[in-house]
Amino acid sequence: MRGPDMNVKAVILLISVLVVASCGRFGGFTGGAPGSAREVADQLEIERLDRKQTTIWDALRQQRDKGDRVAVNRYLWNASLEVLDFLPVQTIDPFTGVIVTGYGTPPGGGRAYRATIYIKDPALDARSLNVAIMTRSGPVAAGTQRAVEDAILTRARQLRTADGKL
User: Fold this and answer.
1) CA dihedral 31, 33, 37, 41 (to 10 degrees)
2) InterPro entries this protein is in (predicted)?
3) Which residue did the predictor score with more confidence, 151 or 110?
4) What's the fold here for domain 74-163?
5) CA 3 → CA 8, 10, 12, 21, 68, distances in Å?
6) What does the alpha-carbon distance between residue 130 and residue 121 come to, in Å, rounded to a whole number?
7) What rounded mean pLDDT belongs to the chain?
């Protein structure tokens, strides 16, 4: 027996299917070589749209604070830790980009150093990196500090090249 109850149930089922189907995200390959400018631009556009789109599930759950993104260059971060691995890490904060070490002696060296590294930008650039190196008697020579910064930048570029994201 087919009556008004069956029509209502069919309409409710159809609306439910449409609502669930609209919660998905549609996307696909838009062309361009992996890592190309077009692919990067498309990915940035998708991320921008993802931040604006909300679903019914977003309305039902409490959103986390969006201020928890790491805004430092991961290659500079890892290179800093690798180059200065002989120094004991005292404080590390990837959200602000600060690494503070204690005193340590480099292999084959006799003088103890400590360092504070500040990565202030997500770009792999010399301007993104600030390194301050101290001995127990005061700051090191500018040439020594520059040599450490150059070693970190060189290692960061090597890590990026090895990662295949030129």
Assistant:
1) 40
2) DUF3576 (IPR021959)
3) 151
4) Alpha-D-Glucose-1,6-Bisphosphate; Chain A, domain 4 (3.30.530)
5) 9, 11, 15, 28, 55
6) 10
7) 76
